[in-house]
Design brief:
The protein has 124 residues and is mainly beta. It is 0% helix and 47% strand. It is built from no helices and eleven strands. The chain has strands spanning 4-7, 10-12, 18-24, 33-39, 46-52, 57-59, 67-72, 77-82, 91-98, 114-115, 119-123. Strands 2, 4, 5, 6, 9, 10 and 11 form a seven-stranded mixed β-sheet that branches. Strands 1-3-8-7 form a four-stranded antiparallel β-sheet, with no helix packed on it. It is globular, with a radius of gyration of 13 Å. The termini are far apart.
Length: 124
């Protein structure tokens, strides 16, 4: 059973930065993709960024150039560096892992089997 625990959320002003962390109970490279999702009140959960075992990264269009996903495989930890934060980035952020992913939907939430409990990010 995979456990994912997020941390690093908080409240920040517009234009500010936060770094989220996700500690995994297993080797993060054991999953094809591990990534970040977010869900704002009243909205669907959406993929933000994901990273493949070979280091390939994929980003949702609205965060390109502002967010950076990375992982420390030695520590089994995933990160999301978020810069130039906007009010629209306010959401609960989740870490998720997938063993297999359809190539045409790598940021699709239904592709991911394991989820953390989330960490809140508020931008105002």
């Amino acid at each position: 059973h995979v456990q994912l625990v997020e941390s690093g959320g908080g409240s920040v002003q517009v234009g500010g930065s936060l770094r989220l962390s996700c500690a995994a109970s297993v080797d993060t490279s054991s999953h094809v993709f591990i990534g970040w999702f977010r869900q704002a009140p009243g909205k669907e959960r959406e993929g933000v960024a994901t990273i493949r075992t070979d280091g390939t990264t994929i980003y949702e269009d609205s965060v390109k150039g502002r967010f950076t996903i990375s992982q420390n495989t030695a520590k089994n930890t995933l990160y999301l560096q978020m810069n130039s934060l906007e009010p629209e980035d306010t959401a609960m952020y989740y870490c998720a892992a997938a063993r297999t992913v359809y190539a045409g939907d790598v940021l699709g939430k239904n592709q991911y089997e394991y989820w953390g409990q989330g960490t809140q990010v508020t931008v105002s």
